Amino acid sequence: MVGVVLPTINNPVYATFVHELQKTLARQGLHLLALAHEYDRESEIRLIERLVSRSVDALIMIGTDHDDRTTSLLKKIGMPHIHCWSSDKAPRQGALGFNNQAAMIKVVDHLADLGHKRIAMIGGETWNNERAQWRLRGVQKAAAAHKMDLVKVATVPLTIAGGQIGYDQIDPVRNKITALICGTDLQAAGALHAARAGGVALPDQLSITGFDDIEMAALLSPALTTIRAPIAELAVTTGNAIIGMLQGEGIPKSLSLPTELIVRQSTGRAPV
What we know:
This protein is α/β, with parallel strands linked by helices. The protein has 2 domains: 2-98 and 231-257, Rossmann fold (3-Layer(aba) Sandwich), CATH 3.40.50.2300; 100-228, Rossmann fold. Helix content is 40%, strand content 20%. It has 8 helices and 12 strands. Pfam families: Peripla_BP_3. InterPro entries: LacI/GalR-like_sensor, Peripla_BP_I.
């Protein structure tokens, strides 16, 4: 039995991850037990302790930033474990993921090439979510490099409803913002809906971007420009790493998988 502790199950990317991970483990006769802490650090610790008490053979955690109690517990019992999803500032061993900061830099570079100067971001809480931290840092770093004005950052839930709330907080029309960067595709879908409901022409008046490239992204109107995160590949790689560790191969070297900017119809040249 392999345990995985997720930040939430209320996002299609984690469903995809669990689906592919489960298939990979099943080929070796391993079962998967998935639990979610909903971005609560204390809940994450309790869930990990529960999995350990159930004598799982190995553990998978999302991200590399965890409470010291978790780190001490896993070190004490010697349980095979993998950190996945983020390769930003990852340790040399045992971390598989992608570079969130570098991915967001691609987004800002794209918007800069389209002539955008006043941008804003809809993101998530950063104190308990290192992926959100690195995505925000990527936007800040690239905006500064291009001398773009990052007018406002809205911190909201990583959901469609959160995207709508973030859009209203930023108020792109009133603040003369021409591009809105979202930390997830779900947030982008909410922002896109709010913009259309307000009569904003997309992308003529406002460009919107997402992150993840979930299935819905290509079906939105307009179709969403986003970062394609290698979720299925990450799940398979993580599963194979866990299998290798259980077969005595040791801790794998950390690995950063490539992301890709997918340009669709939700971004266009900045209005004159």
